[in-house]
Amino acid sequence: MTRHFLDLMDYTNEEVYELIELGSMLKRADKLGACPPLLDGASLGMIFDEPSTRTRISFEVAMTKLGGHALYLRPGEIHLGTSETVKDTALVMSRLLDAIEIRSCADDEIVGLAADATIPVINGMGTYLHPCQCLCDLMTMSEHLPEGKALSDVTLVFVGDATIYENVGTALSHILPRLGAHFVYCAPEGYCADDDFYAPAYRACEEGGGTFEILHDPREAVRNADYIYSSVMWYDGFDSDREKRMHDFLPDYQINEELASCAPDHAMFMHYLPAQRGYEMSDGIMDHERSLLWDGAENRLYGEMAILVKLMYAARKRASEQVKDQQKALIETWIAENL
Ligand code: CP
Fold it and tell me: What residues does each domain of the chain span?
């Protein structure tokens, strides 16, 4: 059965650690200029119905570094969901490509594509989850662990919206407690969801021994933080809400020097980016010596290389040199005789 990458929770803890380790190995190899062409000749279709800097660049560069090729496909430029059903697009792309990455604001489009594709489908961000960002964040955290701690016992405090709109927060709130770690949402009153929404996070606590809690006082929330994570204060398409959200989030829910002074001295700062500088995070924190923002953006490349290798390497056909020579001779003979 085709394995997809729609939700990091579809992967066991052991597999998550393997992906992080593979990403680190590929990063080391790439820094030495020795990245092996593990996906030689493979093609990735990248569908984006929203803008992207990190996801688009990292997947395209990842394929190039691994010896493959990526195609940027925009709705409006392909027939997906318009003159062709999602199923038919899935069937066709499965014959032409080796994997598909899709960013869509319609989660059912991502799931629908995966249901009918016979090649791996990667969720490059939906409304509910952003599993690629989440995996790469875990990789960044693994590279910057507080002294004496493992990923399984860190505390991440996510300051911002704790509702369905925060797809990175949602993804991290599921995986961290399952790894045994501690996830804290710090959101203003009125920016939390119904209890049902947090059921997967509570289940993850039972499975992995971590904890999940929702607090409203930022100073209290960051008291034991190893990582303080920030997210955008308002979303594209929600511009009518912008004034209200700024009123509700500022100044208390901005990650700035004053809030950082309430956290342990080693606390590190994260943001999935793009950030609205000076709103959810001050300039000083974004550029702080303990800011992981730029390492995190760089790790999108290596985490995504690991996902691509995990999903595609085993399925790639690799002919022996003898078979390659035979096929070359057959085709060249035919060309000489017929063209
Ligand atoms: N964090 C993230 O997914 O960034 P992009 O929207 O630039 O891809």
Answer: 8-130+297-316, 134-293
Nearest by Cα to 40 from 13, 12, 65, 59:
65
Residue 76, SS3 per DSSP? coil
pTM confidence score: 0.96
Say which CATH architecture domain 134-293 belongs to: 3-Layer(aba) Sandwich (3.40)
Spacing, Cα 300 to ligand 1 middle (Å): 9
What would the CATH number be for the domain defined by 8-130+297-316?
3.40.50.1370
Q: What is the position in ligand 1's atom list of the atom closest to the CA of 125?
A: 3
If 0-12 CB within 10 Å is exposed, 13-18 middle and 19+ buried, where does residue 298 land?
middle
Nearest protein Cα to ligand 1, atom 4: 54
Q: Largest Cα–Cα distance of the chain, in whole Å?
A: 80
Report pLDDT digits (tens) over 30-64: 999 999 999 999 999 999 999 999 999 999 999 99
